[in-house]
Amino acid sequence: MSTTIAAPAITTWNVDSAHSVVEFKVKHMMISNLKGYFTGVTGTLSLDEADLTQSSVEAAIEIASIYTLDEGRDAHLKAADFFDAEQFPTMQLKSTHIALKSDGELVVTGDLTIKGVTRSVKFVVEGPSVATKDPWGNTRIGVAATTEINRKDFGLIWNAVLEAGGLMVSEDVSITLDLQFVKQA
């Protein structure tokens, strides 16, 4: 008599771009925080609800979707001084490891590629939320994740020295992903 062991149930979820955003924050002129957003986010989550550490995620972020409340600044950030959107139209993130810490904190380690440079980063994750049905019958979950990077590690080196000392733009960048996913059939 043979026993069949059921394979773990892994479900596929796609990013709902209309309800997802990537936010970044840098110190500007050493005196205040400047925030910006990328709204062109796509990606897929392979979710193992029984063991979150067996899940994986991949995402792409369109550089052209950057929005900082200033068209001139947006154009500068898309240019070669920063993201060089013409040559590198997307950033990519691909998870490499997921850990559930003893305090319940979920940490996703992944390869982040910006401007052709790939570095390992760690995101602290909130979620996934409890799944809910939308009015059209789709099942949705939400995930929020945060990390901090040094932009120079990714070739984003433009800066200007201020007359009073210090730099125009900090090297440290805080990143927050607020993502909504739709379950695929």
How far is the first residue's CA from the last residue's CA?
34 Å
How would you characterize the largest beta sheet? Answer: 8 strands, antiparallel, barrel
How much of the residues is beta strand, in percent? over 45%
**Largest beta sheet: strand ordering:** 1-4-5-7-8-9-11-12
Mean pLDDT: 90
Poorly predicted spans? none
What's the number of helices?
1
Global shape: elongated
Kindly provide the radius of gyration, computed on alpha-carbon positions and rounded to a whole number of angstroms: 19 Å
What structural class do the secondary elements suggest?
Answer: mainly beta
- What's the β-strand tally? 12
The topology string of helices and strands comes to: EEEEEEHEEEEEE
Helix content: under 10%
Descriptive overview:
4% of the residues lie in helices and 51% in strands. By secondary structure, it is mainly beta. An eight-stranded antiparallel barrel has the order 1-4-5-7-8-9-11-12. The two termini are 34 Å apart. The radius of gyration is 19 Å and the shape is elongated. The protein has one helix and twelve strands.
Based on the model shown, name its key terms.
185 residues, mainly beta, 8-stranded antiparallel β-barrel
Please give a quick description of this structure:
The protein is mainly beta and 185 residues long.
